[in-house]
Design brief:
163 residues, 5 helices, 5 strands, 32% helix, 34% strand, globular
C-alpha cells in the first residue's frame, strides 16, 4: 500500500520523535523504529566510506537500512545535539520493531569548500513496522557535512539554498 506522505523522511522522523506521540500509528512506529539496542547490529563499521560527502551520505542511508547503529554513529558528527537525538530515536524505533529500506536516488553537491559541504539528497524509502509497510515514497533532504581529520561527517539538516 502506497502512502501519500512524500515529505516524511527518516531524519525528520527521528529528529522530531516528540511529535509522534500524538499520532497513534506513528506512536507505534516510535516504539518500533526509534532505537533498538536490543536488536543485534553489526559490530563493525567496515561498510562506512567517509572519503567524500557523497560516500558519507550513502553510508548513512545504508546504516539506516541495515539497522546498524554503530555505522550510523560513525558517519554522524556526534558533537551535534540533533544527531544525538537522531541516534536515540533510531535505537528506540529498532527496539519497537521498526525497519526501513532506503535506496539513494540522488546526492547533489550544492557547495563544497573542502571543509563544509551542503548536499541535497533524494531517496526512495520504505518504512516498516513489524514487517508491515507503513510509509513509502521518494523524499528529499538538505544536509550539511563537515570534514574532520580527513573524513566527512553528517552535521545535520540544512536550509535549502536559493538558486
Amino acid at each position: 500500500m502506497r502512502s501519500n506522505r512524500r515529505g516524511l523522511s527518516l531524519y525528520w522522523l527521528f529528529e522530531h520523535k516528540r511529535y509522534l506521540c500524538s499520532i497513534p500509528l506513528l506512536l507505534v512506529l516510535v516504539a518500533v523504529v526509534l532505537s533498538a539496542c536490543t536488536q543485534s547490529s553489526p559490530t563493525t563499521t567496515s561498510n562506512v566510506d567517509q572519503s567524500t560527502p557523497e560516500a558519507t551520505v550513502h553510508s548513512m542511508y545504508d546504516a539506516f537500512s541495515r539497522g546498524d547503529i554503530q555505522s550510523l554513529q560513525a558517519v554522524l558528527d556526534m558533537e551535534a545535539e540533533e544527531n544525538k537525538l537522531l541516534v536515540s530515536g533510531f535505537k528506540a524505533g529498532l527496539a519497537a520493531g521498526a525497519s526501513s529500506s532506503i535506496v539513494v536516488v540522488e546526492v547533489q553537491i550544492i557547495s563544497n569548500d573542502g571543509k563544509i559541504a551542503k548536499v541535497h539528497t533524494r531517496v526512495e524509502q520504505k518504512l516498516l513496522l513489524k514487517a508491515q509497510v507503513i510509509s513509502e515514497g521518494i523524499s528529499g533532504e538538505w544536509l550539511t557535512l563537515v570534514k574532520k581529520n580527513g573524513q566527512w561527517y553528517v552535521r545535520g539538516k540544512s536550509e535549502p539554498l536559493s538558486p
